[in-house]
Write a structure and sequence with these properties.
The complex is a heterotrimer of chains A (113), B (293) and C (331). In chain A, 58% of the residues lie in helices and 0% in strands. By secondary structure, chain A is mainly alpha-helical. Chain A has a domain at 8-71. In chain A, helix 1 runs antiparallel to helix 2. With 331 residues, chain C is mainly alpha-helical. Chain C has helices at 2-8, 17-46, 54-72, 78-94, 115-145, 162-166, 182-192, 194-201, 209-217, 238-251, 261-268, 275-293, 297-304, 308-330, and strands at residues 150-153, 179-181. A two-stranded antiparallel sheet of chain C has the order 1-2. Chain C is elongated and about 85 Å long. The two termini of chain C are 61 Å apart. Residues 1-8, 219-235 and 295-331 of chain C have low confidence and may be disordered. The A-B interface holds A 1, 4, 77-78, 81-82, 84-100, 102-107, 111-113 and B 6, 10, 13-17, 19-20, 23-25, 27-28, 51, 54-58, 85, 88-89, 111-112, 115-116, 118-119, 122-123, 146-147, 149-150, 153, 192-196, 198-199, 223-225, 229. Chain C: Residues 282-331 are annotated as: Disordered.
Chain lengths: 113, 293, 331
């Protein structure tokens, strides 16, 4: 079974920062365009700093996602199957009977953690 | 708390039968009320802990879990089956039977109740009727590999329960064949699982079809590299076949193949045993034993 | 160069913000609400799921026996496969798994009286109604109230062909295709709100536009829910299905996957070269081809030998000659 990784705080931080940059660059673009409209100026493409901010946000997102995502699983079924223990053979959850000695053995035993 | 929930989830997925672990981890969860934090999983945990508690004899814990489930899902067939199991565990078998009959009257196709009826017959000490009921169930639900596994186990248990000599001979002939049939169905339904191939191989070996058993053991090791039980099976078969006269059947494994496989199995077993942390003396002893087999 | 500047010069139009407040947002809100209401009504209409019938379940599972045998029979030894094949072909022929063994072919005239068929049709009609009625109503409402003006500007460029569709009601020639009317906003929302519905209602929601499209194209069919119905909506004759499955099984040859498992195992651990498997395959193919075309004794000699060393040498020689023979036969 996949072991849960400890939450990668750095990864999450990177994702949050990436989102903030994206949002900020989007808003800057909107402001820039409305400024141009108000001033009736030519549109000559976005200013350089907005583009750089956008690319940075993409990079941060990429970094963050890679850190936050789970480990890869093996592609061969074989390795997954190898982890299957032989106990799964005898365990048939719908077919449990209770006439075994478990009830007697554990009756007076306190199962502590 | 998070770890306990994770372990319980893993046990649910792998379906291993470890009631002591489940109760040990689940009891504090249930009694402290922390189980409610798991949202959707909480009900699965309740069910899991209830069944484990019944197995371990902790009836109060089981009762508590079942009550919680009943409060949330009143009248549900799944909860009623749990109540039936509770009655089975304390020995009130007729009452349990009544519950299952009622569930089936409402919904004929309820597989849970049908399966419990089968196990009820076995608990009552009527193995033949249990087998009959299970066969009838499998006639309707062909794709339930769990049922086929259980049937195979029933036949093998029957084998162990015959004491009269002549019956034993008949049993050996018939029961192994029946168990093998069931395992074949399981293999068809789950072809990638090496554990079922292993069981089939061991049944074949017990039936004395060594050539076929050898092929199945090879399949086990092919599906799961270095499977120790499979390798031992290979060694057993090859040693028998090499000592016997060479078969004239053209489809049988040739002598040189047998020797090659035998060598391979020995080598892999030595590698597996040699790689552990055991003391050197243990390693040499096991190596000597494997090579002499 | 000149053409490029013309295209890039965007038509800057200033729209009344009241349009945004009173058209854009209300349409979206209305669609979300209608979708949620539709989902709940569908759930109420469907009521409790139908109770499964034991015999029908047995019928479908019985059919699966044949399918499973065909698909995975290669894992079983020959005697097991043949025994099952014989039993299943016999059972399918006799109709042991049929729900209604004496039913036979239902005369077409009584089709409407079959309760299962009628029920299936009613279910389908209910679903279709629930999908189509809200769509038509909302489209009518939009056309009535919100026509005659542009609502939004699409951020992506489109070709001229879309102009007539997206700017219905505003007959101009020069306006950019990117300025569109409220009806196209409705269509955008129809597809775009799917994920919003999934968030609100969980994944199995009844407001799925994809299903709308399917439902529209298969109008009047109650086929989806009832497993007994075929694609044409007539109750299928299960007996015929069983017979066709039986023929499929009879045609299946048993190819035992474990025939050369020892060699495969040795190859897997590197004790034997992988080419051995190729040679074995060739030898087998040669053996099959020559046995079916009944040629010389030399080739059949190759087919019977199974040990690898013999096969490698004989196969190399025989493969060359047999392939030439095959080539001539096919030519």
């Amino acid at each position: 079974m996949a072991v849960q990784q400890a939450p990668s705080y750095l990864g999450r931080l990177a994702c949050v920062l990436g989102f903030l940059f994206l949002f900020h660059s989007g808003y800057s673009t909107f402001e820039h365009l409305s400024y141009l409209k108000a001033v009736d100026g030519h549109e000559s493409g976005l200013p350089l700093d907005i583009t750089i901010e956008l690319i940075m946000s993409v990079a941060l997102f990429g970094l963050g996602i890679v850190m936050v995502a789970d480990d890869f699983k093996e592609i061969l079924m074989e390795t997954e199957m190898a982890k299957q223990s032989i106990e799964s053979l005898d365990a048939r959850p719908s077919f449990y009977a209770f006439d075994h000695r478990g009830r007697a053995v554990f009756r007076n035993v306190v199962l502590k953690n | 708390m998070v770890n306990a929930a994770k372990v319980l989830q893993d046990l649910r997925a792998s379906a291993e039968r470890k009631p002591d672990v489940v109760v040990r981890l689940g009891k504090p969860l249930v009694e402290s009320g922390a189980v409610k934090k798991l949202d959707a999983d909480a009900w699965l945990v309740y069910e899991q802990v209830a069944i484990a508690a019944l197995e371990v004899g902790d009836d109060t814990l089981a009762h508590r879990c079942i009550e919680a489930l009943e409060a949330k899902f009143p009248g549900s067939a799944r909860v009623r089956r749990l109540q039936g199991m509770q009655l089975e565990a304390v020995g009130r078998l007729e009452d349990a039977g009544e519950i299952y009959k009622a569930i089936l009257r409402e919904d004929e196709t309820n597989v849970l109740a049908a399966k419990r009826q089968v196990m009820l017959l076995r608990t009552m000490g009527l193995p033949a009727e249990a087998i009959g009921a299970l066969v009838k169930y499998l006639d309707i639900n062909y794709t339930d590999f769990e049922g086929w596994l259980q049937l195979a186990d029933f036949y093998l248990e029957e084998l162990m329960n015959t004491f009269v000599f002549l019956d034993q001979l008949l049993a050996a002939f018939l029961r192994y064949a029946q168990a093998a049939f069931c395992m074949e169905e399981v293999i068809m339904l789950q072809p990638q699982n090496h554990v079922f191939h292993l069981k089939y191989a061991e049944i074949l070996y017990s039936q004395d079809s060594i050539g076929l058993a050898l092929k199945q053991f090879c399949r086990v090791v092919e599906l799961c590299k270095d499977h120790v039980r499979g390798l031992y099976g290979i060694k057993l078969c090859t040693s028998r076949l090499l000592k016997a006269a060479p078969s004239r059947n053209p489809a049988a494994t040739s002598q040189e193949d047998l020797k090659a496989i035998d060598l391979l199995a020995t080598e892999r077993l030595l590698a597996v045993y040699g790689s552990g942390n055991a003391a050197a003396s243990v390693k040499t002893t096991s190596a000597k034993w494997i090579e002499s087999a | 160069m000149g053409a490029w500047t013309v295209i890039q010069e965007r038509q800057a139009m200033l729209l009344d913000p009241a349009i945004r407040d009173w058209v854009l947002l209300p349409i979206m809100v209305v669609m979300i609400l209608v979708g949620v209401v539709r989902h709940h009504i569908t759930v109420l209409l469907n009521g409790t799921p139908k109770k499964a019938d034991l015999k029908s379940a047995r019928e479908t599972k019985g059919l699966q026996r044949g399918a499973v045998l065909r698909a995975y029979g290669s894992h079983l030894p020959e005697h097991a496969f043949e025994a099952r094949k014989a039993y299943i072909t016999d059972a399918f022929e006799k109709g042991t798994y049929l729900k209604d063994p004496k039913g036979g072919n239902k005369p077409k005239g009584n089709v409407m009286q079959d309760p299962a068929y009628v029920e299936g049709m009613m279910d389908g009609m209910k679903k279709n109604m629930m999908n189509i009625v809200p769509q038509t109503v909302i489209m009518g409402w939009i056309n009535f109230f919100f026509s005659g003006f542009v609502l939004i500007k699409l951020p992506f460029p489109l070709t001229i062909r879309f102009k007539s569709m997206l700017q219905r009601g505003i007959e101009t020639q020069d306006m950019d295709v990117t300025w569109v009317s409220s009806l196209s906003w409705y269509f955008l929302n129809l597809f775009g709100l799917q994920s919003v519905f999934t968030l609100l209602l969980g994944s199995g929601h009844a407001a799925d536009a994809m299903r709308d499209m399917q439902a529209m194209s298969t109008m009047g069919m109650g086929a989806a829910t009832n497993p007994q119905m075929g694609p044409t909506g007539q109750p299928q004759d299960m007996h015929k299905i069983f017979l066709s499955e039986k023929e499929n099984i009879e045609l299946t040859e048993h190819e035992w996957g474990l025939e050369n498992v020892e060699i495969r195992l040795l190859v897997k651990y590197g004790k034997l070269p992988r080419s051995i498997l190729e040679d074995q395959k060739k030898a087998k193919a040669v053996g099959n081809a020559s046995s079916s075309s009944s040629s010389s004794a030399a080739s059949s000699h190759v087919a019977s030998s199974t040990s690898p060393s013999q096969a490698t040498m004989a196969a190399a020689a025989a493969a060359a000659s047999a392939s030439k023979k095959k080539g001539r036969r096919q030519a």
